[in-house]
Amino acid sequence: MNNSPLYQKILKELQAGEQYKIAFIGDSLTSAEWVHPNWRDAFEYILKFSFEEFKNEDWWIPEWNLKFFNYSLDGASSKDFLLSTEVALKEVNPDLFIIMGTSNDIGLNIPVEKSKENMGEIFEILQSKDVIYSPDIYSGDEVLNNAYKPYVEEILQLPRSSNIFMVNGFELFSKYPSEDFYTLDLDNSETSAKDLVHPNSLGNVYIAKMFLENVFGIEISPEKYVDDILSNTVKFPRWR
User: Fold this and answer.
1) What is the pTM assigned to this prediction?
2) Per-residue pLDDT for 190 more than 70?
């Protein structure tokens, strides 16, 4: 039995015949519209199929009643996260918010204290919701990593209620085999530089891994999942 508190909470809702709605808030690392599978795809698929409590004629319950909504915006700042959160609350009233980011605040000249204030306001208005928060992942750009570290440190120290699950993706991602993640070309020329911020499909599934394992207790093998997807021969990709 999966003893993750959030897993058990979702399971209880599904067993009661209720829908459970999950909204993603973030920047281009979360929208990831140019990568398939991206981490949102992997997260949704694996979470739905992890509820093995539903078998035989009940197979449809997690697949139909777990609903996912993407409110991520390319180039979004922490202020945009706040606006997107308010829109999501009004439009679909999610049960769970998964929020990742704030590194765009650097390029948009939003200082650390204002970034922290914006995220604190989000946590304040989501007191009645479940929230998973991670700063943006550790990138392949060391200049960006060094500039972003103060933002990470400040936001992770924000006071928060027990419904907010903090995942330090900035630290966790630095321990993954990132030499295989940053293969995307920035343009189509043969001499193109690599994108050191946005990971490929394998790197994206490692983002799903850090959330699934650290919050839900669901262990996965990103390599197995991506291999099955790219083979174009497997109807139900394996993740373990």
Assistant:
1) 0.96
2) no
